[in-house]
Amino acid sequence: MDRERIYFWGRFILILAMAIGISRVLFLTTVMGRYYDDLANDNMIRKERLEPVRGVISDRNGKPLAMNIDYQGRTQRFYPGGETVASIVGYLGKPDEVDLKECLDCSSEMMGKVGLEKQYQKDLLGFPGEVTVQETASGQDRVEISRVESLPGKNITTNIDLELQKLAFVALKNKLTEVGKSGAVVVAKVNGEILALVSVPSFDPNLFVPEGKRSDFGGDYKDVASLIGDIEKKPLYNRVVSGDFAPGSVYKLVPAMAALEEGKINKDSTILDTGEIRVGGSRFGNWYLDKYGKTEGQIGLVRAIARSNDIFFYKMGEALGADSLVSWSEKFGLGEKTGIDLQGESAGFVPTPYWREKTLGDRWYLGNTYHLAIGQGDLMATPIQMNRMTAGVISGLSCSPRLVGRAECMDLRLGKKNVALVLEGMKEACSPGGTAFPLFEYAGKIYCKTGTAQKGALDTLANAWVSVVVPKGADVREWVVVTILLEEGGEGSSVAAPVAKEILPYILDEL
Fold first, then answer.
1. Domain final position from 157, 178, 197
2. Peptide bond before 201: cis, by omega within 30 degrees of 0?
3. Is residue 19 assigned to a domain?
């Protein structure tokens, strides 16, 4: 009986084991077969993205501003101009969620974060390719099944002259070692083509390339952490397009043209320079009296521009009125973005009586008009705006500045005789007796206007400005306008003008 029982249970267990085994085989082959087939194919068939070669950015003469090099066995982005071109090209970085939404073809590779690298990201990127390969699970044997080659990004030629860019950068940086906090230089044709765009302090964009090669113009920062951490100098801040500054006397070109166009004055009109004007308990003085204790006597527009006479322009502001000054400021592009092909542009600010009453709860007084008429008070502008404003006054054209290509120009419909009269005053400003004494050796060859904008604090120097116009040929669209700012630099004549002097020979002889 015991033997039969053992036999029974042994046979039962054997049958049960066979049933379990057969059902397991049926499950794996029938139910899970497709799953394991797909899994095996995944191990064997693989699709890989082929990253496109990023387009090259070059200057107007074909010299590279941003390029690709083979460095330590890898293809990397390289900026040969280093800190001299950072304000133009920007840099690459890992894309965030916003970047990837804007660029559906982008991967986790480096992409443009600021500057032209970001502005023209879609053009520079190109289109990725794909290769399908078959390989063993170990990856030792690999066979290419199909390939779709990537398409390289578009090469971009800018309006920049790299040699001029470097020259302007070095001239400004050297001057800032003597005086000033920061600075900017813009060199552009009247037609809007930007030949140089400099913001200092700056940085080497190669720092943002992982284990990248440094430029010979590497600058003062050794790594990204020290660069980002410098909240005092703010090297990543592009002062040309984002910095709001009181423009000072360079702005006087606006009330000068406005008064002529509205018939408030003509070439024979004069005003007595009294040295100061008192309104109630406020005093509004002329720099010549305050610095040297002298006055100009009877003075007309040409002499007033050449000498940057505050009394004359106080009276021009009074004759025009606040609303007209605001209107003409806006006509010359102040208080609005220029449309330059860079990110982060500021619109500046043109104060109005309505704004003052609504925002500050205060009336607009005659003194506010006086301040506006000489580019002070609440008026704020970027260096790129002041460059376009100067170009508009001397040409009658308002053109959007462009690093790549050229935008259309708007005719401001200014009287030719009025433009000629303002130009005569600007020519005198660069001649003996004018304010721009460092530029007297170029008398008769250039036009200019200096500016010194007080910041309000007694313990800080004024912002130093100068705008210089170089007439290149008969077509005014080809004339070159140079605008220079040194924040907390001092007087425009003694600080900004010497920087212009360093770059004028190249503009006169090489462009």
1. 157
2. yes
3. no
Q: Which tens digit of pLDDT belongs to each residue from 381-392?
A: 999 999 999 999
Indicate if 115 and 142 belong to the same structural domain: yes
pLDDT, tens only, 58-87: 999 999 999 999 998 888 999 999 999 999
341 and 473 in a single domain? The answer is yes
Segment 286-291 mean pLDDT:
92
Token pair of 19 as six digits: 């049933």
Q: Which residues contact 287 (CB under 8 A, 6 or more apart)?
A: 308, 310, 452
Nearest to residue 386, comparing CAs of 482, 464, 453?
A: 482
- Model pLDDT for residues 386-413, shown as the tens digit of each residue: 999 999 999 999 999 999 998 889 999 9
Q: What CATH number should be reported for the domain holding residue 338? A: 3.40.710.10
Q: How far apart are CA 492 and CA 437, in angstroms?
A: 10
Shared domain for 441 and 306, answered yes or no, is: yes
> What pLDDT score was predicted for residue 454?
84
pLDDT value of residue 133: 83
Owning domain of residue 368: 167-509
Q: Is the residue at 416 inside a domain? A: yes
- Tokens linked to 80: 């040969």
Note the pLDDT of residue 10.
65
End-to-end CA distance of the chain: 117
Which amino acid would we find at residue 463?
N
Encoded tokens for 390: 């100067």
Least confident of 27-31, 371-375, 397-401: 27-31
CB proximity list for 322: less than 8 A, separation 6 or greater: 352, 353, 364, 368, 369, 372
Tokens of 478: 């080809």
CATH number at residue 70: 3.90.1310.10
The enclosing H or E element of 412 equals none
- Chosen domain end from 94, 129, 157: 157
Q: Does 186 map to a domain?
A: yes
Q: Are 133 and 218 contained in the same domain?
A: no
Q: Kindly list the distances between the CA atom of residue 259 and the CA atoms of 133, 292, 306, 319, 469, in Å, as whole numbers in the listed order.
A: 75, 28, 17, 8, 22
Residues 200 and 112 in one domain: no
| Confidence at 271, pLDDT banded by 50, 70, 90 | very high
pTM of the model: 0.88
Q: List Cβ neighbours of 52 (8 Å cut-off, separation of 6 or more).
A: 125, 126, 127, 128, 129, 150, 151, 152, 153
- Indicate whether 221 and 332 sit together in one domain: yes
User: Binning pLDDT at 50, 70 and 90, where does residue 150 land?
Assistant: confident
Residue 26 within a domain = no
494-509 burial code (b ≥16 CB/10 A, e <16): bbbbbbbbbbbebbee
The structural domain count of the chain equals: 2
402 φ, ψ to 5°?
-140, 135
Work out the mean pLDDT of the chain and round it to a whole number.
Answer: 91
Question: Could you tell me if 442 and 471 lie in one domain?
Answer: yes
